[in-house]
Write a structure and sequence with these properties.
This protein is of the alpha+beta class. Helix content is 36%, strand content 18%. The chain contains four helices and five strands; from the N terminus they run E-E-E-H-E-H-H-H-E. A three-stranded antiparallel β-sheet has the order 2-3-4, covered by helices on one side. Helix 3 packs across helix 4. It is globular and about 50 Å long. The model has no long low-confidence stretch (mean pLDDT 86).
Length: 124
């Protein structure tokens, strides 16, 4: 990136991580689950055989489900933020903050990762 030019984090597109399962509950909301890759230790092998393997599971609310439905590698965080703003009647500052916090939560749980735009794709 040239000096003095800033990058817009909302230009990134979220992608679903590998080995993520999505289920829909009786209310139409998503439950997202990921099993971490097995570690190569006696304790983790034993836990896996006994069915005690740790899973990451997140139950999404209506807005989280709306966010998740938009993850396709084409929609940027800006696209998703605007859609959520329209649906929730929030102002731009509130919806941007919510989008960043939700993205961060999903990334920390390794459920999604971000695809950065190639130079020139973000409209710059």
């Amino acid at each position: 990136m040239p000096p003095g030019q800033t990058w817009d984090p909302f230009a990134a597109a979220p992608l679903i991580a590998e080995d993520v399962e999505v289920r829909v509950d009786s209310q139409g909301l998503f439950q997202v689950r990921k099993t971490p890759p097995p570690k190569r230790s006696l304790a983790s092998s034993l836990a896996q055989r006994l069915g005690l393997q740790r899973h990451v599971r997140v139950n999404l609310d209506a807005y989280g489900t709306l966010f998740w439905r938009q993850i396709d590698g084409r929609h940027t965080l800006r696209d998703i933020e605007r859609l959520i703003r329209q649906q929730t009647q929030q102002n731009a500052k509130e919806s941007e903050k919510a989008t960043i916090l939700f993205t961060k939560m999903l990334m920390l749980r390794r459920l999604i990762h971000l695809m950065m735009p190639k130079q020139g794709e973000d409209g710059a």
